[in-house]
Inverse folding.
């Protein structure tokens, strides 16, 4: 078996943990210390996040979309393939090294999406971007951390608590959608979405097409 090669290490802003970029042949892995956060072979649920969101904003002439967390770029690539040329897609990524990896060793996964004229990049906490302007977005896609049950940054919890969900709802345009990816179901989070005033649909999806781990996507309508 081909051994894993350690390509780079990056500190997580404000936290003690570190991310590691690993490669084995054509396979890439981003790990938090020794825990794998994402793998280039497992893109199905991230692509579903983009597809389900695009379906919800299909009626918008020039949709404005915020993606929280670049990861390996699967959500962004899928969103661009589904969005019109008039779309504006902003990616908020708090770890600069993740974007450097996307343009460097993982450029083959990026597929030029970061250079798409519809795309703008913010090296920032998506929670701060959400709070900048009310009524700014048709869709907010959150693929941050492990979902509402945070793993990498304790500060990510503020995206998913009552105040964070209220801020997200205020940042959406009428009929906008907040789409949230998670590695696991979370009944308490489903309840919080409803309490924040969203209409909620919970969708089960697979990490690898019809195979792999079961993940969850919440579609919360304004």
């Amino acid at each position: 078996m081909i051994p894993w090669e350690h390509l780079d290490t990056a500190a997580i802003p404000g936290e003690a943990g570190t991310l590691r970029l690993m490669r084995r042949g054509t396979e890439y892995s981003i790990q938090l210390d020794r825990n794998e956060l994402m793998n280039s072979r497992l893109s199905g649920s991230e692509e579903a996040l983009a597809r389900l969101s695009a379906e919800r904003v299909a009626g918008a002439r020039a949709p404005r979309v915020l993606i929280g967390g670049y990861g390996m770029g699967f959500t962004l690539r899928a969103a661009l393939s589904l969005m019109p040329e008039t779309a504006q897609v902003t990616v908020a990524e708090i770890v600069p090294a993740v974007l450097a990896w996307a343009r460097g060793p993982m450029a083959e996964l990026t597929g030029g999406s970061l250079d798409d004229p519809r795309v703008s990049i913010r090296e920032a906490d998506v929670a701060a971007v959400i709070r900048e302007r009310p009524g700014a977005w048709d869709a907010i896609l959150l693929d941050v951390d492990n979902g509402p049950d945070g793993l990498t940054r304790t500060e990510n919890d503020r995206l998913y608590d009552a105040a964070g969900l209220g801020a997200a709802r205020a940042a959406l345009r009428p009929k906008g959608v907040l789409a949230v990816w998670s590695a696991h179901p979370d009944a308490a989070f489903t309840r919080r979405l409803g309490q924040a005033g969203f209409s909620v649909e919970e969708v089960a999806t697979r990490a690898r097409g019809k195979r792999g781990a079961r993940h969850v996507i919440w579609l919360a309508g304004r």
User: Anything to note?
Assistant: The longest strand covers residues 172-182. The chain has eight helices and eleven strands. Residues 44-56 form the longest helix (13 residues).
